[in-house]
Hints:
Layout: E1 3-6, E2 13-16, E3 23-26, H1 29-35, E4 40-46, E5 50-54, E6 58-61, E7 66-70, E8 77-82, E9 87-91, E10 103-107, H2 116-120, H3 130-137
Parallel strand pairs: 3-10
Antiparallel strand pairs: 1-2, 2-5, 3-4, 4-9, 6-7, 7-8, 8-9
Bound molecules: zinc ion (ZN) (2 copies).
Amino acid sequence: MSASGGCQCGAVRFRVDGELGEASICHCRMCQKAMGGLFGPFVSAETSELVWTRGARKRFQSSNKVQRGFCADCGTPLTFEFEGAKHIGLAIGALDRPADARFVEQLASGARLADFAALAALPEHAEDEPRAAAHLASIQSYQHPDHDTDAWPPNA
Ligand SMILES: [Zn+2]
Ligand SMILES: [Zn+2]
């Protein structure tokens, strides 16, 4: 069992030669800011089983204990790295199969920004509705695909 992933532009890719650990979402203000999102979604992996297969992440020291890894080319958040830990947090959206993450808990719940029940109740628009489908048909993606590639971008 292994997992792989990388950033949006494909400059940085990684693989985990082992099982992914437990996943959580963290509502703390630092995770919100680091992800540019509502919360930080991370799954743990053994640091010794993590291999960087293309490029290298850049890291920002967000506190005296933690570095946060990201792609310096496209900005995709990639890691949460606690000083001295045997585990590393991988940003779940960066995985090739993000649905593999097994969520077990929410952290820093007091800082939660949105009422999730209310979000789930918002009106929905699926990507295959005619209005969205026409728009999506006009979009050409430059995002790296959700699998390893021999070369990227393809025409480089
Ligand atoms: Zn990138
Ligand atoms: Zn956090």
